[in-house]
C-alpha cells in the first residue's frame, strides 16, 4: 500500500509538471512538516525524480522543513547521505528558524542540524525570491510552484 501511495505521488508530481515548458527554468519548493520517516523518504524521492525528469540544469528544487518535519534536517538523520547527494545535484534545503527556536526551548539546547540546512526567517524567502519569481503557489500540501 505504501509503495503504491509513493508511486502515485511521484507519478502525480511528474504529470503535474509535465505540461510546463521544457525551455524555462523551473523552480519548485517542496515542504516537509511531518516527522514520519516514510514522508521524509517520499519528499527526497520526489525531489530526485523532479531533477531526473527535467534535468539538473533545467530545475531548481528546494526542500523547506518546519514543525516535526525539521527532523529530516537533524545532523544524524538516517537520510543524511541522500541529502548530501541531492545538495551535490543542486537541491537546496532550508530549516524554519521559528521551529528551531521552539525545539531549542523544548530540548534545552538548539538541535544539531545538517550543515546543508541554513535557517530561514520566513518560508516565503526560499528559492522563489532568487530571481523574477515572487510567490509560491501551493499545489496540494507538499509542493509549491514558483510563479
In short:
The protein has 147 residues and is of the alpha/beta class.
Give structural notes.
- By secondary structure, this protein is α/β, with parallel strands linked by helices.
- The protein has a single domain, classed as Hypothetical Protein Ychn, Chain: A (3-Layer(aba) Sandwich), CATH 3.40.1260.10.
- The chain is 37% helix and 20% strand.
- It contains 4 helices and 6 strands.
- Strands 4-3-2-1-6-5 form a 6-stranded mixed β-sheet.
- A hairpin with a 3-residue loop joins strand 5 and strand 6.
- Helix 1 runs parallel beside helix 2.
- Residues 130-147 have low confidence and may be disordered.
What's the topology here?
Blueprint lengths: L1 H17 L7 E7 L4 H18 L4 E7 L14 H9 L3 E5 H11 L11 E2 L15 E4 L3 E4 L1
Parallel strand pairs: 1-2, 2-3, 3-4
Antiparallel strand pairs: 1-6, 5-6
Helix pairs in contact: 1-2
Name some characteristics of this structure.
147 residues; alpha/beta; 20% strand; Hypothetical Protein Ychn, Chain: A; disordered C terminus; 37% helix; six-stranded mixed sheet
Amino acid at each position: 500500500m505504501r509503495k503504491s501511495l509513493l508511486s502515485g505521488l511521484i507519478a502525480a508530481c511528474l504529470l503535474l509538471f509535465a505540461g510546463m515548458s521544457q525551455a524555462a527554468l523551473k523552480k519548485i519548493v517542496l515542504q516537509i512538516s511531518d516527522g514520519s520517516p516514510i514522508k521524509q523518504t517520499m519528499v527526497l524521492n520526489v525531489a530526485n525524480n523532479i531533477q531526473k525528469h527535467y534535468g539538473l540544469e533545467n530545475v531548481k528544487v528546494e526542500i523547506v522543513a518546519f514543525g516535526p518535519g525539521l527532523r529530516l534536517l537533524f545532523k544524524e538523520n538516517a537520510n543524511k547521505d541522500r541529502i548530501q547527494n541531492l545538495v551535490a545535484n543542486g537541491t537546496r534545503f532550508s530549516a524554519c528558524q521559528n521551529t528551531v527556536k521552539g525545539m531549542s526551548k523544548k530540548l534545552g539546547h538548539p538541535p544539531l542540524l545538517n550543515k546543508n540546512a541554513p535557517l530561514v526567517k520566513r518560508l516565503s524567502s526560499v528559492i522563489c525570491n532568487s530571481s523574477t519569481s515572487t510567490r509560491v503557489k501551493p499545489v496540494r500540501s507538499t509542493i509549491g510552484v514558483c510563479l
